[in-house]
Design goal:
The complex is a heterodimer of chains A (223) and B (219).
Chain A (H helix, E strand, L loop, with lengths): L9 H39 L4 H13 L3 H11 L9 H26 L3 H9 L4 H31 L11 H12 L2 H36 L1
Helix pairs in contact in A: 1-4, 1-6, 1-7, 1-8, 2-4, 3-4, 4-6, 5-6, 6-8, 7-8
Chain B lengths: L5 H38 L3 H15 L3 H13 L7 H26 L3 H9 L4 H31 L11 H12 L2 H35 L2
The chains are: A mainly alpha (223), B mainly alpha (219).
Family (chain B): Belongs to the binding-protein-dependent transport system permease family. HisMQ subfamily.
GO molecular function, one term (chain B): transmembrane transporter activity
Keywords (chain B): Cell membrane, Membrane, Transmembrane, Transmembrane helix, Transport
Amino acid sequence: MTYQFDFGWLIDSLPVLLKGIRITVQLILIGAVFGVALGIACAWVRALGPKWLKPVVATYVELIRNTPFLIQLFFIFFGLPSLGIRMSELSAANLAMIVNLGAYSCEIIRAGIQATPRGQFEAGASLAMTPFQTFWHVVLVPALQRIWPALSSQIVIVMLGSAVVSQIAAEDLTFAANFIQSRNFRAFETYIVSTLIYLALAILLRQMLAGLGWMLFLRKASR
Amino acid sequence: MTEFSFWDILRNLLLAARWTVVLSLVSFIGGGIVGAALLFLRIGGRRWARLLSRGYIQLFQGTPLLMQLFLAFFGIGLFGIDVPAWLAACVALILWTAAFLAEIWRGCVESIAKGQWEASASLGMGYLQQMRYVILPQALKVAVPPTVGFSVQVVKGTALTSIIGFVELSKAGSIVTNATFQPFTVYGLVALIYFALCWPLSKSSQLLERKLDVAHRNH
């Protein structure tokens, strides 16, 4: 192998990379907040919601979990305009991530809810809590605490999966890498650098989610 | 201007879906072999082997599959080989699958009670004998549902190989869209074909899990 590695382009390309990182971080923050919220709503439907809505949610979850994220993205960005629904690259990427994480987190949260003993619903009711209050305070919070590690991993997986939004020209980190390597012809080095950035982001995100979990659940419990 | 009927679209997509299936099988089998090697390193006695395997798994689980595909595509090229897309796709998917399978299987091996290791050690068995006769037969049973479940991720992962130019179902979807200007129909069909491939795997994983759970309770 006579290849000479060259990382000299890195300094000039830094602003492009930073912008890509910013968009990727922005995508995952919005995606995580709304995706988990959607997941909680769907889990509520599957546990206590109206009967007619249950099969709808079940179909949504199964459809999303058994198709690739790339195709969901293409369907939203290229397919939906045929129905008159148009959106920017970033909105489409955000929507796809929310819809995707919503389905996965629904299943994860549902597993946590199912582990709640039946008696706790009844105990909540006997304390004159409304069904919604019981769901929120008695069922959901302990369920979230139970499944927090699984939910965190799923959020990290969605973050890593977001690399494909570059395919609809959303200007995330991968898009930045593609742009840079088309200028400097140093494809391998460019992708090594962006892979390492993704690795750092994944480790950071995992730590942040662990910290958030501690803030949400353990600190409360120790008080 | 050629007109494309619904049947033309479906037929072309189904023909391309063969490559999705082939690539999934290759990645899964290859990933299983490499993953088993990683597993033996990961739970074996040697410290450097454990660290090496752990680092490998964290690296591949902590980076996007798309980046791994790009690196395989351009990395193999550094050796002066003209890399066809299928080769890069196979290499990246096998390495990626291996990392996940090794981690899943490690969980299964660790779910076997420590007493089993000690009992087999006290019978004078070596590491490989312990694995062969005591640990693996039990761990394999636990491992089946999550392994089948992960195969769904592999099938979905193959969609990314379209980005480096391997013509499978997703790439065919893009090509057909460009020819027919019917993205809604085409991507809808592509999604349904993926669903038809993945859903039986998901369902059987769930069923196996339930069956195994019953077996567990009867102990």
